[in-house]
Specification:
Strand order of the largest sheet: 2-1-5-4-3
Shape: elongated
Number of domains: 3
CATH superfamily of the largest domain: Reverse transcriptase/Diguanylate cyclase domain
Number of helices: 16
CATH class of the largest domain: Alpha Beta
Structural class: alpha+beta
Amino acid sequence: MISAPYLADAVSCGLVLLDCQGRVLVWNKWMMQYSARNVDETLGVSLDEACGVRIEQRIHMAVREALDFGMASLLSHVLHPSPFPLFSGGGTERIKQSITINPVLSNSGERRCLIQINDVTTMAAREKLLREQTRQLREEVDKLTEMQEQLRCNESRFRELTRQVPVGIFETDLEGRIVFSNERCQAITGFEPEDYMGQPWHSIAAIEDRDRVNVDWQKLRNQGERIQIEFRCANKSSLRKFWVSTDSMPVRNKAGVVTGFIGTLTDIHDAKEAALRNAQQATFDTLTGLYNRTPFNERLMNALSNAGESHQFALMFIDLDDFKQINDKYGHESGDIVLKTTARRLRQTLRADDTVARFGGDEFVVMLAEFRSDKDLQVIVSKIERGISQPINIGICHVHLKCSIGTAVYPQDGCDITSLMRHSDQRMYDIKRVHHSTDHEENVNLKQKAKKKVDAGALM
């Protein structure tokens, strides 16, 4: 399995992990590249010492909120463009930054702070360019309305300008019907002008997003507010479904009366897919597809928040016995097959409203949403044990596994995450010790029986 430091170095953004005292635990390769500070200068020191300068107070406040209260923060590049001393290509100009600060829990339950820094310099420049282009286009539309005698000249000029800009541009009337679109807009959507001229502009959205886009459009139409929407669009020519972004605003005459609307259309598919993949990796275990620690802890916290005095749920820690022997004997690929098969069997055994996650290695954790009695809980435990003990085909042979399951029940064993985790984890290790003792006795008995057979053969 890939270790956490290698994963931190693989992502295309800055990652800084702080311990409960605010000292740096992880300073990934991206941070070293943009800050020119190596690991020896950063690990084990405060954020100010790691950066070599005093960091803005708002960063320290957000870090303390994460460590002390478990609160997450998002610092937009619009309001806080460059809080960290990060420079692109060894230059002197700071990069624009979008910063997310989240609390995370260590294996021991200690709260830590994860800071994610994204370079949005290019995006900020693009936004500025698009705003400027939109302003210029609005001015051109006003001129075309006011100067009827120069309609031909201005129309030709306007069309050439919109043809050269690198984004799709469209204009609508008061009802949102398209009255103009540039060549880039047509290339993005795959529609010819005659296909959607006079049609509602949001008809270019894919079916699954069309209602949502229409709601935002009605807000623009009724309140005269600027809207920025991301939605999926299906190209009519290639049938490719992809993500686009539109920035639309009302067009007003000199009297301030809205006469229509104008918008830009940008293909953001690659960036959106990358963001979705990052979100997927942050939520799910990449090997098994199960939840990882963070979303599981969030669901457990929600269960605790919503639990009443008469409601109970259970927490299970599941550890595969002798899993290391499979890795050592057959290799890590075989071990991965075992883990994926175990995850699949757990999902098949549990109910849809139960939550199962992988906490790392061969350790899984389950939250049973509801059960009626200890007998029901034991039945579920037995089903899981039977499911996991079935032979697993690893390609070259079948392997058999047992598992150790420790349970904790809310509220009998605790009313908070720490207590429930500690109880279930301790009971799992108690059961594992029993399993090891039993396996040892069975091995001794087998050896004694074998020796008796050999001795009996010698006497004959």
